[in-house]
Amino acid sequence: MAEPRFSVCVYCGSRPGENPLFGEAAQAVGTWIGTQGGQLVYGGGRSGLMGLVAQATAQAGGRVVGVIPQSLVDKEHANRACDELHIVQTMHERKALMAERSDAFLALPGGIGTFEELFEVWTWSQLGYHNKPIGLLDVADYYQPLLAFLSGSVQAGFMGPWQMDLVRVGTEPASLLAQLVQAAPRSAAQEGALQGKI
C-alpha cells in the first residue's frame, strides 16, 4: 500500500445512533478518505459509527490506524482488521497518539467520549499546541443544540468569536473533509502529492 497522502483523525460514537443518516455519514467519511488515498486514525473499535467509518475506509482502499486502551479492547471489540492497531494503557496515551498521527480532526455524532475528544483538540488549538484544522460534521442537525449553547457562551463573555472560528462546521462530508485536508499543515512531499487531487 502506498504512503497515505494525508491522515484524518475521526471522533465518533461507538454506538450507531437512532438516525440512519448517522451511519450513512460515517460511511461517506470513510469512503472519501479511502478514495482520496488517505489514512483514517480513530479509536480502534469495530462497533457503531467507529466500525462503519473504519470499514468504509478500508473498503475504499484507505489505510486504517486504530488506537484503543487495553481496558476497552473487550468492551468495544477492538478492530483487528486495522492496518495498525495500537493498544495503549490509558485514554491520555490514546488521545495523544491519535493527535500525533493526524493532519486534521473531524468529529461526527457521538456521545461524551466524542465531545471530550473534540473539546480537547479544540482547547489545544486555542492554546497554540497545534495548528491542525478541526471539523464538526453536523449530521441531521445533531450538533445544533451544542452550537447554540456555545454561541450563548460567546454572548455571555466566556468565549470569543475567534474561538468558535477554530472549528469548521459542515453538513456535507466530502466538502468538509476537502477543506480540512487542504488547510492541514503538511510536508513538501505531501503537498506535491495533493496537487490537483482534492
Short summary:
Belongs to the LOG family. This protein has 198 residues and is α/β, with parallel strands linked by helices. The protein has helices at 20-35, 48-59, 70-76, 91-100, 112-126, 144-155, 161-164, 173-183, 188-194, and strands spanning 7-11, 39-42, 63-69, 84-88, 104-107, 134-137, 167-170.
Question: Could you characterize the architecture of this molecule?
Answer:
- This is Cytokinin riboside 5'-monophosphate phosphoribohydrolase.
- Keywords: Cytokinin biosynthesis, Hydrolase.
- It catalyses: AMP + H2O = D-ribose 5-phosphate + adenine.
- By secondary structure, the chain is an alpha/beta fold.
- It has a single domain, classed as Rossmann fold.
- It is built from nine helices and seven strands; from the N terminus they run E-H-E-H-E-H-E-H-E-H-E-H-H-E-H-H.
- It has a seven-stranded parallel sheet with strand order 4-3-2-1-5-6-7, with helices on both faces.
- Helix 1 packs parallel to helix 2.
- The longest helix has 16 residues.
- The two termini are 20 Å apart.
